[in-house]
Write a structure and sequence with these properties.
Blueprint (H helix, E strand, L loop, with lengths): L1 H17 L15 E4 L10 H7 L5 E4 L2 E3 L3 E3 L4 E4 L5 E4 L7 E5 L4 E4 L2 E5 L6 E5 L4 E4 L2 E5 L2 E3 L2 E6 L2 E3 L5 E3 L4 E6 L2 E2 L1
Parallel strand pairs: 1-2, 2-5, 3-6, 4-7, 5-8, 6-9, 7-10, 8-11, 9-12, 10-13, 11-14, 12-15, 13-16, 14-17, 15-18
């Protein structure tokens, strides 16, 4: 009886692999969960926002080095990763009363960007966070209104804030906010 059960289990485990052929192998890999912005790939997006709009929950959006002049709304759980925090630049275009990055979704990872040129006082922000379980890592925020946080379970680390109007402001209802290894100037 044990041999029959073993053979049935082995056969059931084999069936999914036997149905994979060369035309659908790519759809079974995790690389389809990555969208690219900039760079020279044939299907790369030209704007970060358009990649976010097309991404499904849990996708990673990889942004190549370059200057991107846009305001970005992150409204779904994604990983947004720049190629290098010194060369992947989001320029706020010196507009007033804007937020360059607005993160309203929960479970967002955001790393390796420079956010600059959004400096016009209290109502202009580099990043505004209202989602929960946010991870901000290795970013440079310069010449901006600063960062506003109204969220829970947020970790911000290894970032550099310089020449900003406010630095970091924390709104009511925030809890479990951790800021580590920041350079403020």
């Amino acid at each position: 009886m044990n041999k029959i059960i073993t053979l049935v289990v082995a056969f059931l485990l084999f069936i999914p692999f036997a149905s994979i052929n060369g035309s659908n192998v790519a759809s079974n890999t995790s690389t389809n969960n990555i969208l690219y912005v900039g760079g020279s790939g044939p299907d790369n997006y030209t704007s970060i926002q358009s990649a976010i709009n097309d991404a499904d929950n849990g996708y990673t959006i990889y942004v190549y080095s370059g200057i991107y002049r846009e305001h970005v709304r992150i409204y779904k759980p994604i990983n947004l990763i720049g190629e290098d925090e010194n060369t992947t630049i989001i320029d706020g275009m010196n507009e007033t009363n804007v937020t360059v990055f607005s993160i309203s979704a929960s479970h967002v990872n955001f790393s390796h960007f420079t956010i600059r040129n959004a400096l016009d006082g209290f109502w202009t922000k580099a990043i505004s966070i209202s989602g929960n379980y946010i991870y901000i890592h290795k970013d440079i925020i310069t010449n901006c209104g600063g960062m506003h946080i109204s969220s829970s379970n947020t970790l911000i680390e290894n970032c550099n804030l310089s020449y900003n109007y406010l630095g970091v402001s924390v709104g009511g209802g925030s809890s479990n906010l951790t800021i580590k290894n920041w350079v403020l100037s």
